[in-house]
Design brief:
The chain is α+β, with helices and mostly antiparallel strands. It has 6 helices and 10 strands, in the order ααβααββββββαββαβ. A hairpin with a 2-residue loop joins strand 5 and strand 6.
C-alpha cells in the first residue's frame, strides 16, 4: 500500500497541536505540584506511581526506611552480596516499592554519597553486584507490622528491624536480638560479656569523656553470655573513648553509627 503513487501517509501529530501541548503542560505542572506539596508521584519515568492513599499508608516508613538502610550499612559487613527486605503484618498489605527504594538509598549512601537517590538506587545496587530481594508476609511477626533488613555474604550476616509505636519509629531488633533504640543521632553499639558492673563502667567512661547518654537499651540471650548494648548519645564518641572501651577484654566490639 505504501508504494501506491496516489497515497500519502503521515504520522499522527495530534500531540503537537496547541491544545494538546497546553493540556500536557497543565498535567506536568499538576504532577510537580502534587509531588512538592503532598509527596504523591504519578507518571514519573523512573519511579513507580505513589498516590495519596498509598502515601498516607507508607509515608512514615519512607524516612524511617532510609534510617534503617543507613544503620545497616554502618553496622553490617563492608562488602555485602545482597540486601533482603522483609515486610510483615499490616505494612505487607501496602505497596512497598517506595519504601524499598528508600531503604536502598539509605544503605547505598555510604557508597555513592550525595549522588544516590530513590531513582538511581536500584541501578547502583545492580552495578555493585548486590542482589535486592523483597519478601512480604501478613502474619508470623511479634509486631503488628515490622520491616526487617538483612545484608551480608555467606560468612557474615547482619540485620536490623524496626516498627512504629504510635507515631514513634523504633529499632526493635539488631542481628535477631530483641532490643529497642531510637533511629536518630549517634548510636553506639557494644558487644560485651554480660557481667555485673559493666553498665556502670561504660557510663563512667562516657562521663569522663564528656559524652552524655540519651537512651540505653540492653539485650542478652543468656546470663553471662554475649550481650548487646545500644546507646543513643548526644555527641559522637572520640577515638580515645572507643580505645578505652575496647581495652576491656569483656567488650568485644564497638561500632559508632551516625543517623
Amino acid at each position: 500500500i505504501r508504494s501506491a503513487k496516489n497515497l500519502i501517509m503521515t504520522p499522527h501529530l495530534g500531540a503537537s497541536t496547541a491544545e494538546a501541548q497546553e493540556s500536557v503542560g497543565i498535567e506536568i505542572a499538576e504532577a510537580i505540584r502534587d509531588a512538592l506539596l503532598t509527596g504523591a508521584i504519578r507518571n514519573a519515568v523512573n519511579m513507580p506511581n505513589l498516590d495519596s492513599k498509598t502515601l498516607a499508608a507508607v509515608g512514615p516508613y519512607l524516612s524511617f526506611g532510609e534510617q534503617l538502610g543507613r544503620f545497616l550499612s554502618q553496622a553490617g559487613p563492608r562488602r555485602p552480596e545482597y540486601l533482603r527486605i522483609q515486610y510483615s503484618g499490616r505494612i505487607a498489605e501496602e505497596t512497598t516499592t517506595p519504601v524499598t527504594r528508600a531503604i536502598l538509598k539509605g544503605f547505598l549512601e555510604a557508597v555513592g554519597g550525595a549522588d544516590v537517590n530513590v531513582v538511581n538506587a536500584p541501578a547502583l545496587a545492580e552495578t555493585l553486584g548486590m542482589k535486592l530481594e523483597e519478601i512480604k508476609s501478613t502474619s508470623g511477626s511479634d509486631f503488628a507490622e515490622l520491616v526487617q533488613v538483612t545484608t551480608g555474604c555467606e560468612s557474615n550476616v547482619s540485620s536490623v528491624a524496626g516498627t512504629f509505636f504510635g507515631n514513634k519509629a523504633r529499632i526493635v531488633m539488631i542481628d535477631e536480638r530483641h532490643i529497642e533504640t531510637r533511629p536518630e543521632g549517634v548510636v553506639l553499639l557494644l558487644e560485651n560479656r554480660d557481667r555485673p558492673g559493666i553498665v556502670g563502667q561504660v557510663g563512667s567512661l562516657m562521663g569522663t569523656h564528656g559524652v552524655n547518654i540519651a537512651h540505653m537499651s540492653l539485650s542478652r540471650k543468656e546470663v553471662g553470655g554475649k550481650a548487646l548494648t545500644a546507646l543513643n548519645l548526644d555527641s559522637k564518641p572520640s577515638d580515645a573513648l572507643l580505645s578505652e572501651l575496647l581495652s576491656d577484654p569483656d567488650i568485644y566490639s564497638a561500632k559508632v553509627i551516625s543517623l
